[in-house]
# Entry
Amino acid sequence: MAPHRSPTAELAKLLGTARQPIYVLDEDFTIVFLNRACLEWLGLDAQELLGQRCVYHSTASTEQLDAVVAGLCPPPQAMSGEAAMATVAKIADAKIADNRRPIERMARFVPLGLGENDTIGILAIVDTDDLPPDAAIPTTAEPEPIALHEHIRRFRHEAAARCRADRLIGQGAAMRLARRQVELAAACRSSVLLVGPSGSGRQRLAAAIHYGENAAEKNADAYSSASEFILLDCSLLTGDLLEAAGAALARAAGQGEASPFATLLFHRVDELPADVQTQLADFLTRRSLHCRLMATAVAPLVESARHGKFHPELAALFSTMVIDLPPLVNRREDLPLLSQLFLEEQNAAGTKQIGGFSPAALDLLDAFPWPENLDELAAVVAEAHRSAGGPRIEAADLPERIRLAAQAVAQPRKVDETIVLDEFLGHVERELIRRALSRAKGNKARAARLLGVTRPRLYRRMVQLGLE
# Structure
């Protein structure tokens, strides 16, 4: 008599020998099973992957295992009992620093459980064929979270991998130009001026250029911990502080302590008082600091200097390369992508996993004016992420000020119309004369009698009102 085998063992055997890569996640998105085909496709051992928790985000990782696990994560709505189709990805090899694009395949995610609200795990069945490198991202009339997720992941591995400027995501002409300028800036040592409103990510982008430049160097030792990124907030910078900072930098350069890859960022340089601008211009032209200069401002410094609002020599010194960052209100077409980007950053930082935004929530975000730009959007998404109780962010999860702003746009306040008395009375008088002439069949003398005026007076008014 053949030995009895449990149904669970039989199922594990069937899945283990299947030709398609298959893996299973429990309700906490932890990997509990991978078949042989899946391990061969990923190029890793089961011991490395079992027990790893998948997180739904697109952040590029420098660790191969973390990157592989993130690429296997299903859309969070699958845990709510909703079957889904999405791409999964694996890193081509262990050389993550090469920023090679992941190899992608389509996968079908099947919820496991007794009902919609009783999901205990997810079964993932992966196609056997790799997607072509130029495979189109599926899109619909409404921006679907899965499509936005795939767009962000590809962007990060293609464009942002070269300059680490993920907030420059978008298809507008301004964003394409800014990405190209950032790549050029990261490949050279010229001074860079980042122009944009408050909250547009100028300081973050300056750091991306600095570290992108260092990462591009072949000698890893040259840009290690000695690669300083020094920030001076010019809204707080006085002449005495400038002298002290300059002396320290000059002393470090003279003693050979300064890194050849150091960057000195003058944040909000356009807020420097006029006397400090003159002092800074004199200091920078007299001394060789052996570091790269960057600055941020709300408007181009050369234009400000032309109107007498900034030191011309200092403006020229900082403006070798100028990168414009438009306000968020001028790139509303990028709002769904940016919102999904910030949402997945929240996913990566915590345990709660949210798949995306409902169309109603995106409509509310689109109606908001965003005076503080990207920083404000990131804060709103973080607040909504904390409030959300389902697999996606609904309109009710957004902060109250976002909902109130949308109501104000939908119901604009009526503007009181000004009545110009002379113009209004002229319309009335003109209409009365027309009616009198009509009743008098064009006879002016009779029309004058109907109106209770003399014929000469009627004629004068007709000429003045343009009726004669």
